[in-house]
Amino acid sequence: MNGAAWKRWAIAGIAGAMLAAAPVYGPAIVDSAKGGTAMAAETTAASTAQRTISVSGQGTIAIQPDIAYVSFGVSTKGKTANEAQTANATAFAAVEKALKEQFGIAPKDIKTSGFYVQPEYNWSDKGQSTLVGYTADHTVTVSYRDLDGIGKLLDAVSKAGANRVNGIQFGTEKSDAYEIQAIEKAMANAKLKADAIAKAAGRSVKGVIHVQQGSVGSAPPPYYPLAKAEFAADAGGASTSVQPGEMEVTTTVSVTYEMQ
Known about the structure:
There is one protein chain. By secondary structure, the chain is an alpha+beta fold. Helix content is 43%, strand content 35%. The chain is elongated and about 85 Å long. Residues 14-21, 26-30 and 227-233 have low confidence and may be disordered.
């Protein structure tokens, strides 16, 4: 091998050895960067979790009912099923006429909640039955919004032929709006608790991390049985007096705050 050829071979060998010995930095650097980012994210999350307060809040508002659901019915008897049902239809037509003409109640606000025709029996001491006739019963629930006029409505349907009055349930048709008000009170209640806890810990509330609303409930006035109303109507004189009272709308929230 002459001098020039030997020199070229030596240079090539040295270059190859250097290339083989060179460390591969690219992928290792990328993996290291990813690991550092993930570790930083985990550290931040853990740090945030250590600076949180979880509390519950409740909001309750008292409201005036704006609708009443009045339940009453017509019960009639007859020797045959047809006779009892015909008598019932006649009596109920008079009641329905009073509702529509005297009080302007729309058909959509008169809902049948029960209807039946059934036989009536007398039972002997020996357990033998004797058919004595039939009973027809038609129950309706009327949605009525003039709460001051409920007494007059009860008196009118009683005079028209309703001979069974079940009771009144008061409610509201503005439940969505009232729920929003209750939520606002619940959130304010939760914030007061969080502020107190943070202050006791020597910190302050920074902001909301998570909120979850609980159930919404409304506590209506007690169901008003109308035995008293029937008595007042029979006694004559002043109209039956019915007092709606107040309702309550309540909701709860669970809130997680970050402290600083």
